[in-house]
Amino acid sequence: MGLLLLLASALLTSHFHTGSQVDAQTAFTIRSVRLTIEPGTDVARGTDVTVRCQAAVSSSGQETLTREYTIYKEGIVVYTKTTSSSEDFLYPLSEARASNSGKYKCKVSIQSRSLESNAEKLTVTGLSDPVLHLKKGVVTEGEDVTVRCTAPGETGSFFFYFYDNSKEIYGVQANTNQTETTLHFATGIHRVHCTYTVFILPDSFKSNKSNTVNVSVKELSIMPFLKVSPQSMIYEGDRLNISCSVRGYLPSSESIELHLSRENDLLSTGYSEISHSMLAPANVPELRFECRLTSGNVVKVVTNNVPVTELFSTPTLTVSPAEVFQREKMMLTCKSQRYATERINESELTYTLDPEERARPTMSRGVFLSTAPPEDINYTCTAEAKGIKKQSQALALRPKVSVSTPFISVLGTAILGQTIQIHCDTAKGSLPINYTLIKGYEPVAWKTVHLFSEKAVFSITINKTEDIKQYMCAAANSHRGELLGERLSANVIEPLTWATLSAVPDLDDLSEGQQLHLICKVKGSMPVTFKWYRVGSAIPLNITTVQQKHKDYHVPVLSKEHNGQYYCEATNPAHIMVRSEELSIEVRLALWKKALIGGMILLVVSLLVLAMCVLHYKSKRVKVDRAVVSVWTERKPETAVDEESSMVSNEPDVEYTEVVHPRSSDPARAPPRKGTDTVYSELQNAPQGAADLHDYGSVEYAELNSEQPETAQRHPEVSGCQDLPVPVD
Length: 729
Prior knowledge:
Elements: H1 2-15, E1 20-22, E2 27-38, E3 42-44, E4 49-59, E5 67-73, E6 76-83, E7 89-93, E8 102-110, E9 113-116, E10 120-125, E11 131-134, E12 138-140, E13 145-150, E14 157-164, E15 167-174, E16 178-183, E17 188-200, E18 203-206, E19 213-218, E20 223-229, E21 239-247, E22 257-262, E23 265-270, E24 273-279, E25 286-295, E26 298-307, E27 316-320, E28 329-335, E29 350-354, E30 359-361, E31 367-371, E32 377-385, E33 388-391, E34 395-397, E35 407-411, E36 414-415, E37 419-425, E38 433-439, E39 442-449, E40 456-461, E41 471-476, E42 483-487, E43 492-493, E44 499-504, E45 516-522, E46 528-534, E47 542-546, E48 550-555, E49 564-571, E50 578-579, E51 583-585, H2 591-618, E52 629-633, H3 639-647, E53 654-660, E54 678-684, H4 690-693, E55 699-700, H5 710-714
């Protein structure tokens, strides 16, 4: 049962929003809380200010709700009150001060619920004038003066300032509106006032000046007394006696303390009288002594400046010669240029050298002989007379290093006909170094090197390769004279001037299957980079660099594809490219191909001739009608004709009939030939059935054979178709 009631109570409580409360009798809600400042947020100092907090609360039932009001200033609780009244809550600020300035906020709490108002800022302007009070206006020198500064009616955190004749002399922080302190003043009349500042974070407010009070300080009759003896014509090394004492009467029971000092050096201390004895130091043209008297807050000081005359000047140390080279003789001289002849003579001055291990004195005063060391060294010398020692400034001796034999070289590449940079240098030697470029034995150029970053570089041009060997360098950095180096030995690049391209074997003998060597030859220095090209292509066929002036490009097996124009290019370290003229390559057929083609041509020609002969022979036959009778004229048979006749074995059977025609006796005609014209009639018997295959008509052929010379009759020619019968018209 109790658990059910607890759950029901929790559900009812969660039903209401923040700022409302429900119990068994009364439900309420805080609707709003509002804070106001009256009569306003900006008021003058002394105004009565009221901070009003208004709470709007709605409730059910008749039961009075208890309210708790909390006032905040800059987030800090300044006032809290619990009341059951529903009236506005008032927080009064009577006669508001600057310390009341700040941001105010109000919070209303009822039971377990609360609500805050908005913040309002109150600014109170104006501060009360401070009041300065002194216990005594007339005091004796060294007496304390008690002063008090008050900020009437102000509250907060304060900082008080005290001024003497408008100059700030003291400041102190205080948590109350007044402060008291002790001040000390020198003799005379002093006008004293004060001010204060109130800190109200994050702001601060400064007051006006207080009233001014005069303070009179009377001087005591007691005084310190300082005496220096002798008082004039004091030279370095003279003995000085200094005393410090008290003169006058001290009415109080305060003790007196004396301090004697020179600059920052305390020489002596005492009570009634103190003294000190010393030698006038060197190199101090004036001595300043001070006698200080202290009694309580009273401090009195007297000073005395004593001039001191120089006994002798600070020595100077010099070296001769001005340029000293390692391990060479040198002379060091220590000398004071001035000295007081009325006090000392020159013989009283003594000189010493430091370090003295490497130097030995000479008969001349202050002169030392030594050998320049191989390393740098600092020398000083000291002059002394009548107990006064003066040291010279350090002489930094940096013995120079003599130049070594110079060497000569070429910067970059030496190219014939172009500007060449020649560099002269030495392995060691102190700067500056004078370099001379010599051609043959005549100087042609000079340069002085002052910095290690500098180089002695000379520009020349040579037109013959052997001219490079005529140059050499000379170097000097001392009185010893120049050192001459060796002659220049450098490779001179001769630019390429022309290129030629030739072929092996000869161009007229090029045929397929052969090897080809395209030889590119140049004139100039090596190494040479050769490139071979075929016209029409920008990509080289071959690139090679060799230590020779010619190189070949090898084609192992020639073919028709190698026909074309070829050329070569070449460069060397001079970077001047030369190009050959174009070379025309024409590859002919191989010998066996020529023989094969010739044989084929002869074979074809022979076949054609044979075919023509056969056709011509067949065309002489006379075709007759079906009886197939042919008539031929024939000379007397000869052996050749018989052989020719016998070769035709497959011809039909032929019978010949001789017919003799009388010859014309007309003398106008061609001269008669021996023999007779014989006509042969050929009777050809057609085989069985031939008439069906050929329908030939009767044809008669006649051959007129002229008389031939005897030699022709003895050696008849049988070639071609000469002896074939000629048809008779």
